[in-house]
Amino acid sequence: MCPPEVSEEWLRHVWQHQLFDASRLHTREGKAVSILFPGTPNRDGGPDFTSATLRIGQTTFHGDVELHVDAAEWQAHRHHLDPHYNAVILHVVLAASGDVTPAVTSTRRALPLLVLHPFLDERLHTAWKEAFIDTDSRRRTARIPCNTLNEVVPAETLLHMLDRLATERLETRVRKLEERLKQLIDEQRMTVREPSPRYYGNPDDIPAPPNDYTHTDFASRALWDQLLYEGIMEGMGYAKNRVPFRALSHNLKLTILRDFDIADRQTTMALLFGAAGLLPSPRDIADKESRAYVRPLRRRWKELRSLLRIPLLHEADWLFFRLRPTNFPTARLASICFLLPSLFDSDGLRRLIGIFNDERWTVHERIIALNHHFDYVPDDFWMKHVTFGEEGRQGGARLGRDRIIDLLINTVIPVALLYGRIFSRPALLNHAREVYHALPASQDNIITRTVRKQLLRVTIPPSSAWMQQGMIQLYKFFCTRSRCRDCDIGAMCLPAVPR
């Protein structure tokens, strides 16, 4: 019988530190198991331990290890469909019923099963509850160095620091976008130009393209559209899928989507999902409605693929593990397909910049208009689905309020500020900053919760998005790096620390 209230985190601890009788381990099929190296703990998507070395029977294997409390969880968590688990060499569980379905990878390879419970001491669970769970909780809950001392810091000092850091965080984003815009200009210079003169001799002597930029270079609407498109795509990736979304936007540029008619949703969806490697074969889909939806997309992708000369991503580049279903990359790619026609029609950029530029609007009216800019209604399929599979929750691929706020903070407002600076639009700059400071707070994350509880407490409720941005900047660049001597708050509550 399994110990009560066992968590998978506890099982990871048991496996990592081998808190069992390792001398007599054997798989359910009776093959002896020797742990030469248990693997490296993986705190992100994919198997629980990577790069393990095990001897199973007479063969030595090098690969990943996946742990579950119950053997049935492999199938329940859909690991049999996820290529991230194709390198698993051993499925370790605490318990397994007699008729459990053997675990297989997406390549149909059967996995050996190790049931740990017979090799454990029953007293282990009690010891863990008294010691390990407290230690793990302390480890996962980061502490601000001045946590027990900062109650003496006035609210005015806290607000001043957060405001300065929020502005610093926004400025960093604007600078990154400026660098990317210049890269896009350089790429355009290399591809849209008269034929280069012939050069003889050492190729290293060929002059590089000029690195000076004029207003004419920045005036191309296509460059600004691509910059905005990349920022929105990256923002759709959240923390876990930011890199593949960025790569997809670089590979499948907005000009390519426009060449195939951005208003043709089926074509746009076939291109985005196909280039992302997330367009499955109908025969791999159990749900009848999903199969019917995918078939025309697959046919369209087959017609288009030979016309593209771009790198393609693979399903394994994307993470679904430990994500809310509405944040799955498939749901967010579907969101892009519904947003593109309105965001990037022939008048899209002018309308967006106009929200910040028009003197007649109040800041509240601007925020309403910006939210409306990202409002759309999915089709019947994506209203009910977040993947090409069984139905999920209602509202499926719609964008939530918090995601829109993040897109405004991290992409739309920085793009507007960059545009206003390059083309000397002081009114636009002022209005963009006003919107930044007036946006409401989004949902707390682990960082904002930590700062709120250990620094702001009840003195200052985080009522705005800019304050949350300041909290994130403070935590990442001061608290976690022990830069108390560079921090106004640390200097006040730790006066003995020299500045």
Brief digest:
The protein is α/β, with parallel strands linked by helices and 499 residues long. The protein is 48% helix and 8% strand. The longest helix is centred in the middle third of the chain and has 37 residues, at 155-191.
Q: What would you note in describing this structure?
A:
- The protein is α/β, with parallel strands linked by helices.
- The protein folds into three domains: 8-124, no CATH class; 150-157 and 444-493, no CATH class; 214-438, no CATH class.
- The protein has 19 helices and six strands.
- Strands 1, 2, 3, 4, 5 and 6 form a six-stranded mixed β-sheet that branches.
- Helix 15 (401-422) runs antiparallel to helix 16 and helix 17 (446-456) crosses helix 18 (465-479).
- The chain is globular.
- It starts with 7 loop residues before the first helix and ends in a 6-residue tail after the last helix.
- The relative contact order is 0.10.
Brief descriptors of the model:
499 residues; 6 strands; 48% helix; 8% strand; alpha/beta; 3 domains; 6-stranded mixed sheet; globular
Order of helices and strands: HEEEEHEEHHHHHHHHHHHHHHHHH
Distance between the termini: 59 Å
Q: Count up the domains.
A: 3
pLDDT average, as an integer?
85
Number of E-type strands: 6
Q: Uncertain segments of ≥5 residues (pLDDT<50)?
A: 127-141, 192-200
Strand content: 5-15%
What is the global morphology? globular
Q: Give me the Rg, rounded.
A: 27 Å
Structural class: alpha/beta
Largest sheet: 6 strands, mixed
Number of discrete helical segments: 19
> What portion of residues is helical?
40-55%
